[in-house]
Structures are given as C-alpha cells and as structure tokens.
Write a structure and sequence with these properties.
Elements: E1 5-9, H1 14-30, E2 34-38, H2 41-44, H3 50-53, H4 58-79, H5 83-96, H6 108-114, H7 118-127, H8 144-158, E3 166-169, E4 176-178, H9 188-203, E5 214-216, E6 233-235
Parallel strand pairs: 1-2
Antiparallel strand pairs: 1-3, 3-4, 5-6
Helix pairs in contact: 1-9, 4-5, 4-6, 5-7
Length: 245
C-alpha cells in the first residue's frame, strides 16, 4: 500500500494511542493516507528480564499486545489493510477510553492480561465490523514471524533504542522517527501546526534526538486523567517506567 504515513503501533501502548489520535486529526485536515502497521513491545524486549527491569504488570501487558497483533495480522490478511484502521481504533477505545473498572477488583496485571483473551477481543471485533473467529489468532504463533518482520522494519528506520509508535512520513524516502510522545491531544486548530514542527525538525539531516524522560500521565480515562486536566508527572527513565535497581 502506498501511503503518506506508515504508522507502527502496539495496541497496548498508551502513548502510541495518544499519538495515533493526533495523527488522525492531521490525516483529516491534510487528507493524508495512513497505513497502520505493527510493532511489538514484547518482541522488542524479548531479551529483557521483565521481573528485574519492569513493573510487575508489564509482562502481561506486552504479551497481550502481541496476542492482539496476531488478531490484527489475520484481519489484514483476510480483510485487507483498510481493516486495521478501524480495528486499532476499536482496540484503543476499549483499552484507553473507558474509566478503570473498579467493581471487579482486578489487579493491574489481571486487567492487562485480560486484554489478550477471547472475552475481551470478540466485542472489539464486532465493533470493528469483523468476524469473531479472528479471535482464534490470539493463540496462533504462526503470525509472529510477520509481526517480527514488521517490528524489525520499523526499528531499521530509527535504530533499536526506541519504543512505540514509529512514524514514517512520505515513505520510502521520507523521514522516520519514534514518537512524538505526547500526553495531551492538541486542539484541532493546532494539530497540523504541531505536525509541521515535528516533521520540519525530523527533516534536518543532522537531527537525531530531542528528549526528556519526564512525562505526564496520558490524558486518557483509563489513567484517571480527564480531558482538560493534567496528569501527574512521572520519570520514564530508559523510555519506560522501569524499576530502579
């Protein structure tokens, strides 16, 4: 598919979701085409000792993300690349746009693990207008080679010391970059302006990195941060909330 933007996402990454919402704003204003592609945090961190380096719920969350990408890979194979836009939107809506479920008293690890189950995925497929039998791919590791290939493709554009999302603008010759990591959705009138600034910086041949590890919690109901409010600032040293040794 020839697209203006290749957007590589892991469905369980909140910052990828925030950036995707902004990209959809820009897409509508600029009439860009977007190819939604896969990058797996579980595969990126395959060499990492999760117990030593991550909060305890990360392993379950990243594994669920890989399972959801298997469903997405099968959906793409059987229903076309255009199906991924609405499937990713449905994933993100269910994962991030609802307030935490306090009634069931699940731990954070259990909440994240549930995202990789039939119970969670089947209503999402229905919302996206896709057959429920696609959920059978959750346990089908044969899709992992395709997801790994696309993950490697994304990392080849930026280098390996990054996370999600990765954006490739005007491929194959255009600029690619990790992020941008944003915690708030810009207003409609400033969305395209922010895009122009990001792309302008990325297009400078000598540019490599502009970064701060302090991040606000994303402005998403799942994090208890309502629209118009500012989330608590956290230090994502090493690109994630890794446990300090």
């Amino acid at each position: 598919m020839d697209a203006d933007i290749n957007f590589y996402f892991d469905p369980v990454c909140p910052f990828a979701w925030m950036t995707s919402k902004w990209v959809r704003q820009v897409q509508a204003q600029r009439e860009y085409t977007v190819d939604w592609r896969f990058i797996s945090l579980r595969l990126i961190n395959a060499h990492v000792d999760y117990d030593a380096h991550f909060p305890p719920e990360y392993g379950a969350g990243h594994t669920a993300g890989l399972r959801l990408l298997r469903v997405a890979a099968r959906a793409r194979a059987e229903h076309g690349r255009e199906s991924i836009a609405r499937l990713y939107e449905a994933f993100g809506t269910h994962i991030f746009e609802a307030a935490p479920d306090t009634a069931n008293q699940r731990t954070e690890g259990e909440v994240r693990e549930r995202r990789g189950t039939h119970e969670f995925v089947e209503p999402i497929l229905a919302q996206a207008g896709l057959p429920l039998e696609l959920a059978e791919a959750l346990d089908d590791g044969s899709w992992d080679s395709e997801i790994r290939q696309e993950t490697d493709e994304a990392l080849a554009l930026t280098g390996k010391d990054v996370g999600t999302p990765i954006i490739h603008f005007e491929p194959p010759a255009g600029v690619a970059f990790f992020g941008p990591v944003i915690s708030r959705l810009p207003e409609e009138r400033s969305a395209a302006e922010l895009w122009d600034h990001v792309v302008g910086l990325a297009r400078f041949p000598g540019f490599a990195e502009l970064k701060r590890s302090l991040r606000e919690r994303p402005q998403l109901p799942a994090f208890g941060v309502a629209s118009g409010t500012v989330g608590q600032q956290e230090d994502w040293h090493g690109g994630s909330r890794r446990q300090k040794k």
